[in-house]
Amino acid sequence: MSKIANWREGEIFSDIYLCRSKVSGKTKNGKTYYNLTLQDKTGTADGKVWDLSSGIDHFEALQYIRVEGEVQRYQNVLQLNIRRVRLAREGEYDPADYVPMSPYPIEEMYDRLLGFIRSITHPQLRALLEAFFVNDAAFAKAFKQHSAAKSVHHSFSGGLLQHTLRVTELCEDYCRKYPLIKRDLLLTGAMCHDIGKLKELSTFPANDYTDAGQLLGHIVIGMQMVAEKIAQIPGFPEVTKNELCHIILAHHGEFEFGSPKKPALLEAMALHFADNIDAKLEIMCELLSDSNAHGWLGFQKFLDTNVRRTET
Amino acid sequence: MSKIANWREGEIFSDIYLCRSKVSGKTKNGKTYYNLTLQDKTGTADGKVWDLSSGIDHFEALQYIRVEGEVQRYQNVLQLNIRRVRLAREGEYDPADYVPMSPYPIEEMYDRLLGFIRSITHPQLRALLEAFFVNDAAFAKAFKQHSAAKSVHHSFSGGLLQHTLRVTELCEDYCRKYPLIKRDLLLTGAMCHDIGKLKELSTFPANDYTDAGQLLGHIVIGMQMVAEKIAQIPGFPEVTKNELCHIILAHHGEFEFGSPKKPALLEAMALHFADNIDAKLEIMCELLSDSNAHGWLGFQKFLDTNVRRTET
Amino acid sequence: MSKIANWREGEIFSDIYLCRSKVSGKTKNGKTYYNLTLQDKTGTADGKVWDLSSGIDHFEALQYIRVEGEVQRYQNVLQLNIRRVRLAREGEYDPADYVPMSPYPIEEMYDRLLGFIRSITHPQLRALLEAFFVNDAAFAKAFKQHSAAKSVHHSFSGGLLQHTLRVTELCEDYCRKYPLIKRDLLLTGAMCHDIGKLKELSTFPANDYTDAGQLLGHIVIGMQMVAEKIAQIPGFPEVTKNELCHIILAHHGEFEFGSPKKPALLEAMALHFADNIDAKLEIMCELLSDSNAHGWLGFQKFLDTNVRRTET
Amino acid sequence: MSKIANWREGEIFSDIYLCRSKVSGKTKNGKTYYNLTLQDKTGTADGKVWDLSSGIDHFEALQYIRVEGEVQRYQNVLQLNIRRVRLAREGEYDPADYVPMSPYPIEEMYDRLLGFIRSITHPQLRALLEAFFVNDAAFAKAFKQHSAAKSVHHSFSGGLLQHTLRVTELCEDYCRKYPLIKRDLLLTGAMCHDIGKLKELSTFPANDYTDAGQLLGHIVIGMQMVAEKIAQIPGFPEVTKNELCHIILAHHGEFEFGSPKKPALLEAMALHFADNIDAKLEIMCELLSDSNAHGWLGFQKFLDTNVRRTET
Amino acid sequence: MSKIANWREGEIFSDIYLCRSKVSGKTKNGKTYYNLTLQDKTGTADGKVWDLSSGIDHFEALQYIRVEGEVQRYQNVLQLNIRRVRLAREGEYDPADYVPMSPYPIEEMYDRLLGFIRSITHPQLRALLEAFFVNDAAFAKAFKQHSAAKSVHHSFSGGLLQHTLRVTELCEDYCRKYPLIKRDLLLTGAMCHDIGKLKELSTFPANDYTDAGQLLGHIVIGMQMVAEKIAQIPGFPEVTKNELCHIILAHHGEFEFGSPKKPALLEAMALHFADNIDAKLEIMCELLSDSNAHGWLGFQKFLDTNVRRTET
Amino acid sequence: MSKIANWREGEIFSDIYLCRSKVSGKTKNGKTYYNLTLQDKTGTADGKVWDLSSGIDHFEALQYIRVEGEVQRYQNVLQLNIRRVRLAREGEYDPADYVPMSPYPIEEMYDRLLGFIRSITHPQLRALLEAFFVNDAAFAKAFKQHSAAKSVHHSFSGGLLQHTLRVTELCEDYCRKYPLIKRDLLLTGAMCHDIGKLKELSTFPANDYTDAGQLLGHIVIGMQMVAEKIAQIPGFPEVTKNELCHIILAHHGEFEFGSPKKPALLEAMALHFADNIDAKLEIMCELLSDSNAHGWLGFQKFLDTNVRRTET
Predict the structure, then answer these.
(1) pTM for the predicted model, two decimal places
(2) Do B260 and A256 touch (CB under 8 A)?
(3) What distance in Å separates residue D27's CA from the closest CA in chain E?
């Protein structure tokens, strides 16, 4: 398969991609053309369709298509000049090949998460975690495949798991360094803090905000999922429920980032930091991992500064 | 009874008050004294106990006490110079006399709220409102007696009802002026928007933040109460549930005031305005109703400006 | 007449429009063309002139032109491919057909405003209102035709009147709910609060900022208009003049929105809220009234959030 | 006379001061005393009256009183322990001795201001300045005696003149350095920019905000004074009037400091800078001129930083 | 010795403390008294001197004094009622007993820091670290004894070392989790990031801002110390010098916290997070470690929220 | 030579320009073209190359090229339609003709700066200034040719000198008006405040941020240059060094503009104002000097407002 990340100028081939978007345009001469965004697991690229008899009418965005054309360079970026296009047939392709994936193996990450769960000694907190991650197969399956964001960072399948595991590991480090932290509470909060994203974002290939996500947000959705699960666990202490819910509500750290409460417990503060660090360092790492990233990369909105790769 | 609002300098009497707080101090000569905050429904005032043999050790804050003493003026404010004090006996007093009350009759306000409920035509929204305000006697009783705040505005018994009714009436006005508004949804949101205060604030005489209130806040608590009630109503549409929850979440209008979402629906925006207006105008009205309010009253933190009573 | 809102793809016709703007461009091949913005009371649309022999040199922006051409679709938006164009002749068109209009009848709204004036009992405030709205025919005529903004909201003829009436009605509602409000003062402030827009914005069809508007703003201009009129009313109390001027100065509520004073009187606060509510709800209603508004409409700068139409 | 700035610990004398404020207090033993703020042109100091038979009942704040007592040190600050006090008689004192004064001679400063006026060549701008500063004797007299602030900086008689002259001189410097500046316009703006303070602040000895000052502020009041005067000058160009009014409106530079417009003209920007510099440097100079100012002086609210005197 | 943390009400003893401050006051009766702040390594407490013949004139703040008196409770806080006081004699006390100390052993922490230095493989970065921490005995001695702040957090001897070690450990954790990080550069930055505090704060017992500290701040001072040391290391790469200096300059993360540059390198971002986490969690831990910390502790300025100890 | 500022539509010529940038594009028909930014000392303009056989491959950005073509108007802006292009030969052009220049003569400005230096009486401050401006020929040469910014204001050769001289003159004015200012210190600070720009920005023709400039910024770089020079001057007082360094660090006045310290000395405040005024007035003057600047010029990002030329 001609992976998008491996395209070379001048190549001619026929292959199948996910059509992420399909937009018509018009040349200055009044001729209609189409711009498609093609996607596979290695990235996205533009494809141009100039010949409207090429089959352009028979598919929509988020369908899989077979395109035939030549890779060309336009303003220093590669794109596909498409000569023919048609809807791909079931069986011709494997959807898994078209979803961006975490660079880490899913099952291995999940096993490490389960390891953390087995280390929790507080019986009700452990029961809560098992109710989600061990006993709820649908939850576990969805959790493994979900992204942690629409874009920005961890916006690939397995991203939610990768982020959750990393945040949990950072929290584990804090427990060792600051003995006042209640480990069971913090780690439970870490593992549950973003589960609301399962409902805030739709599954791949769309990976976009849901209506509930827009209206309520993953913070409140996640807290509700936790509260509902807790209601089914006998003997869950009221104060622990409130503290865990607080930790989830406060994990964005500031009102302006959508937390309705600021961290008022040591564990809430620790989780907020772990979440923020992994988000920001991941943004930076994804930026710098791009092999085209040379010199100063320009102002980065989410980092609020210009950045460059370290040369030391 | 010697109502605090009616005290006159030089009066000597014996009467019963709620002891809101009890703090010891020491004169420059090393002599211990006590400062009590006395409360009845007409207001609060300080009482000084200089003579420690007067019975000071036999009660705590939030108990009812009988005090005997003389009203004196200190830095232009009246206070009670207490000669004797003792714990009041059950039956000597009626707790209702010691709780600040809404100036409007409770049952009359509640009837008007019920009238709004009867005007709702959407079957599930009506069922939701009736589940709270009609069929849940404990909820109704608490709702009538609660305040809408610890201090600042509507911090009296019946305050939550008075504020809720006023906000509902303002929303009704908007419905008539902006026909695009969905009346059933907005009025349901108006009546439910602050029910979380039943759990955020404790009952009178304490009327202070609860632990859950500090950790979660009335916005999220209220939304959860609504979501739980909805779960028991057959056929409640998912989208209506999300919209109603959004309206409650967004009613503070801005992240910085604790709303995790900004108003994204017309009804959410309308409710936010109604809530904000009644809060701010009530603060102003409570300030200006004070018969001692003359001329410029100085910088008011919650209004972010100096204010005075209109002279026109 | 081919109203812009009713255009259909493929239609061919000849009709007259206001040319709101006229800008030349060049194709990649070096050929010059013109883009015109055409306007009638139902909206605006683009028109392209590719053939420069078509008469393009004989008119300027803000003149009325007769165009002949075909409606085409470009990136999902309709535009007119213009084959011939000429300046329209006096008598061929009625300017009133080219100005966006309030959906409410002007005279009916004005009558309701006059009704409010007749309800004012304070003799000098009533005299002030009559001096503007009853006795000054030029003022009254201009007030009925003006917009309340260049764009954003109420940017149509009658918009100033519609907004002023709505704000006055909202204030009337507040007077009934908060008896401490001085009704005569608040309603006078409401009716006068935006009269400075008569000088801040030019008349239709331009409806754009004037030089004085840019330099001074409608808040200060309006306060000066009121102060000058008051100077001609015998016995107008000094304190009432200052309070009324304050109410106008403070009606934007915050320094950052151009009010040099924050609301310090109950009536100033009430007027600010009424003004703000009608502005924000009108923005939302204008957005949602667009028949093309489906689903989430994207981030709205003036509302600082994404929005959608309510589905309940 | 025993000037307050010259008091020495242990001195005993009888002298006359302005009683700026009079507040009663009570000792821990229940004894009433009075704290007076005494003022003369060299400063203010506290005076304590412990003996209530001393004449304390026969005067109010802002009256002149004769006090007899001993200077004592309390928490490192000198105060007067007052044994006897009475209202001073007309003729016993000269009010001019009790008002803080600019360190520069008033008439000399005024002459320099008149010199600037004579250098203005634009006939109407010159006429405007003369209408205020030359032909309006009451204005001129008030302008010479007024302060530029209640406190903070230039809060002494002659302060308005001193600040206005300094700002005018700074603007003159800018005219020489930036030839694009219209000198007549800028200097007229400089001389008029704070005349609204004549109505925003009352005269000495009170020197406090007036009701109109609180409601409207000196920026708008000053612009109105200018606009009214201009109305009496034949042939004053409309655009010049608007530009001059803009310059006055914008002289605080930012919305948050009460300017309803930001500087949009070169002269408006220049005046804003001159005003800001003289205000901030004068605050700093007044701070550092205090002979007790040693080392780091602590956080200064209006400078938003800790400061110290330069040692180089 | 009667450690301050162990005082009990009613105890009478004679012991030596550091007199941190000495301030005179006056009773309402005009009697002078002194309030002393006493300090030993376990904390600080107030001492009152009512009898001025007690020796109060013979010492100043920051001297060691022997006091004799009785521990009393005043508004729920213990203080010493001092009957006699005199300057302590050399030899009577060990200054080390009067300086608050890190709870961790200094040499052990320093050894771990040296361990990190030995793990650095970049020759010039290692040389830089050794030039400070290994070869500069005066630096090493000062570094071990310094605090990391005047107050707020780590304001005890060994605090700079404790904070530096913790930040270095956190950075080491990040290196393992984010392989793109250049470990040598980040750990060098971590160990050097706060060395400017050696000159920003004076040594114990004063532990207060120096003049240079006020004027320049530890960020710029520290960067200069690094730059000067680098100038003596042959072959130190220019780009590495600039990157290291950037990392130090940017470690406060935001302009508003005194960093003249925002983190533009991955290592700069990582160091900022590590520094911020240890500061905030340490503030929280110091707060919660107080055995008097029960329930909600009230609004905490540096955490911008109310906090309480976790109860789970 | 055909100076860019003098181009007229329809002109055909062959001339040499600096090629500031070179970017390829593609027409809607798939044909590649190039857009060049041409620069001479009078300004910049676009040039289009449609014919790729014209020599486009033989040069890069920042080289000098000879172009032959015709001036055409496109969307009201002149550009060059290039028919032939080649790399210019050494000797065919004088680089000085391609660098934008200060409108003031360099040597005359430098002489005035030297005059200020000769007026400094503090021996070490004078020695410092001479070490830079008199004795360091390379520094002097660079200082004369450098800009004060990449763009925004003073972004021309001689701009650093022009800005520095103007700021020094403004400071001299302040010294005369505020006698508390230490003239030697302030003027030394003024002359040195932006010398870090010699390393923050590269020389012409590039005039762009250097790597060190991005990482450290001119404020810190400049302070280090001063500190290093001071280290070579015997007897330079420590406190003067710290005060001078503070003045440089604080000259942007606010944290958010990259100053790590706020002005804490009178001279630091004065320098900040002088720097800010010359920056802002120069931006305005450069804007208004454009002969195409008519009417309202639109929102100006660096002035945060719409502006227009004064008409009085």
Answers:
(1) 0.91
(2) no
(3) 6
